[in-house]
Write a structure and sequence with these properties.
This protein is an alpha+beta fold. The protein is built from two helices and 17 strands. The longest helix has 44 residues, at 179-222.
Length: 243
């Protein structure tokens, strides 16, 4: 072993140097060179830092630097996140997205252009004017539709979601508020009153008939029986007299 190489290293180093830091790493750790001022120091990490990707070899695991425009990468030729000012597309970092794609400033990726989508129109509403459906001849009716898919930055914008058109209705007078209910209530009261009147009349009729019947029965009980009228022929027949 070289005199400058130490076996009692810290921080995951298998071998190290007082001047160069780690020279080799313990199993499963990645070796990476960090620049400090004018010199580079070797360190051993469980995963590669941002801007590096890991490669495993039989004798050592190393962290290699990504391309200059790439913040994180899977391999040197496949970036997973770009640095500021670049947009990710198919593992590459581009300053401008290809035709048919647009730059997404939120994810910093090139994405497909999304156009607006709407639902079908609803049926036309009743013909109205100033919130009423009566008391006029010409009014307006409207219909609506909903936005199903909002567009992306370069997508086709959404069309109008409401439409209005003129309409003509047969003129009719507006029923005063509460009048319909009042009329129904009055009709109901009148009907109940008529029914009650008929019921009272029927009760009076039954009571009168019952009273007349009882009166006749009482009269029959109190009046004496009439004697049978004599036969006129018998009264007029001559009687036997002694001469």
């Amino acid at each position: 072993v070289h005199p400058n190489v130490s076996q009692g290293c810290q921080g995951g180093c298998a071998t190290c140097s007082d001047y160069n830091g780690c020279l080799s790493c313990k199993p499963r750790l990645f070796f990476v060179l960090e620049r400090i001022g004018m010199k580079q120091i070797g360190v051993c990490l469980s995963s590669c830092p941002s801007g590096y990707y890991g490669t495993r070899y039989p004798d050592i695991n190393k962290c290699a630097k990504c391309k200059a425009d790439c913040d994180t990468c899977f391999t040197r030729n496949f970036c997973t996140k770009c640095k500021s000012g670049f947009y990710l597309y198919s593992g590459k970092c581009l300053e401008k997205c290809p035709d048919g794609l647009e730059a997404n400033n939120h994810t910093m990726e090139c994405t497909s252009i999304v156009h607006c989508e709407t639902s079908e129109w609803s049926p036309w509403s009743p013909c109205m004017k100033k919130g009423k459906t009566c008391g006029f001849k010409k009014g307006n009716e409207v219909r609506f539709r909903e936005i199903i898919q909002h567009p992306s930055a370069r997508g086709n914008p959404c069309p109008a979601t409401t439409e209005s058109r003129k309409c003509i209705v047969q003129r009719k007078r507006c029923q005063k508020e509460g009048k319909g209910k009042k009329n129904r209530e009055e009709k109901r009261k009148k009907s109940n009153k008529d029914e009650s009147k008929e019921t009272r009349q029927e009760s009076k009729g039954r009571a009168a008939r019952r009273q007349n019947r009882e009166q006749r029965e009482n009269n029959n009980k109190t009046q004496p029986k009439k004697r049978k009228a004599p036969n006129k022929e018998e009264d007029l027949a001559p009687t036997d007299t002694a001469h």
